[in-house]
């Protein structure tokens, strides 16, 4: 299996999480974390459900992965997330020392990785992450578009 095929397969798992979020009335973002080829964490946004502004998919996945690994350092791990992480999540990714972050679609208004802030590779920080973007971009954009179109129709 090619590297692209593996990235697409894993992003589909993150998309499953995004659809779970949408079904729960949450902004549809999903994330998984992989270590040594195995999924060690799966999460989706739960901000509304938990009444917690930090309950983003990335943060929840990092917490699960740290528990699975038994260490807050997630060296050797790759996060797949459907949308570019915000500044909060990008900061947590750096602190957790994830090796790579793979996402589907950029967030031109709030992106903390490259679009608005360059947190994942800021030279002032003690860790930098490899970035792969655009994996299943259209599918990742479509779930967000569908969610916000339905939300606007309710208003």
How would you describe what is shown here?
The chain has 155 residues and is of the alpha/beta class. The chain is 43% helix and 19% strand. It contains five helices and five strands; from the N terminus they run H-E-E-H-H-E-H-E-E-H. The chain has helices spanning 3-23, 47-50, 57-69, 87-96, 137-154, and strands at residues 30-35, 38-44, 77-83, 100-105, 130-133. A five-stranded mixed β-sheet has the order 2-1-3-4-5. Strand 1 and strand 2 form a beta hairpin. Helix 1 (3-23) runs parallel beside helix 5 and helix 3 packs parallel to helix 4 (87-96). The protein is globular. 40% of the residues are buried.
Layout of secondary structure:
Elements: H1 3-23, E1 30-35, E2 38-44, H2 47-50, H3 57-69, E3 77-83, H4 87-96, E4 100-105, E5 130-133, H5 137-154
Parallel strand pairs: 3-4, 4-5
Antiparallel strand pairs: 1-2, 1-3
Helix pairs in contact: 1-5, 3-4
What's this model, at a glance?
The protein has 155 residues and is an alpha/beta fold. It has helices at residues 3-23, 47-50, 57-69, 87-96, 137-154; strands spanning 30-35, 38-44, 77-83, 100-105, 130-133.
